[in-house]
Amino acid sequence: MEEATERYFRGRWQMVRIIENVPEGVIGEFWGEAEFAPDGAGLTCRENGVLRYQGADYSAERQSLWRFPGGGRVEVRYPDGRPFHDFIAEDPRAAHLCGDDRYDVTYDFADHHWRSAWAVKGPAKNYMMSTLYRRLTADGRPMEGPLATATATATATAADPEGQAAEARPGGIGSSVSTSGSSSPGWKR
Question: Cα angle at 102 between 120 and 118, to 5 degrees?
C-alpha cells in the first residue's frame, strides 16, 4: 500500500465514480478529472467532469481542502475550512456524522491509483459510492494502471455491504451540478 501524503496526492488524476442507491441499484456515474494543487496550507482538490444521474448528463464540479498536519494524519475539509473527515494513513478509514446520516469511507492507495469507497446511511439515505483515481502524466495521459479492472472492482465493491462503498447520490462536499449552465439542487452539503 502506498502512503497517503501531500506529495502522493499532488497533481492531476483521471477519475470514475459509481453511485449506487442500495434499493434501486446503480443510479449514477461521474467521469472526469481531479486536480490536487498546493494552496499554502496543503492541497485544494478540484473535481470536474460529467455526472450521469438517472439517465441525464450534467456538468459537475466539487472542491475540498486536504491538510497534512503530520504523524500520517490526513484532514479533508469543506471549501470554507470546516472539517469533513480525517484519517490516519496507516488505517485509511473515517466516519462523518451529518444530523441522522452517517458517512463511512475507506481508502485504498496504490502506486499510481487509489480508491475511495463511501457507505451512507440515514433515515432517508441508503447509498454507496466508489471512486477510482488514476494519475495523469504531465501531458494528460493516464499512467499505466488497472483502471478498467479497478472500475469493475469499484462496481463489485459498491454492491458489497461489507466493502463500505459509496458517497452516492449528488450530495458531496463543495459540490455543484449544472445543466446548460444552471445550478441544480442535487449536489449540496
Answer: 35
**Grid cell locating 76:** 479533508
- For range 78-96, the mean pLDDT: 95
Residue 90: name the closest of 74, 105, 103 by CA.
74
Measure Cα distances from 124 to 120, 121, 127, 169, 176 in Å.
Answer: 10, 8, 10, 12, 21
Angle, CA of 60, 137 and 87, to the nearest 5°:
60
9: exposed, middle or buried (C-beta count within 10 Å: 0-12, 13-18, 19+)? buried
Closest CA to 72 of 3, 1, 173: 3
Degrees, nearest 5: CA angle 35-59-117: 55
Task: Quick: pLDDT tens for 11-32.
Answer: 999 999 999 987 777 789 999 9
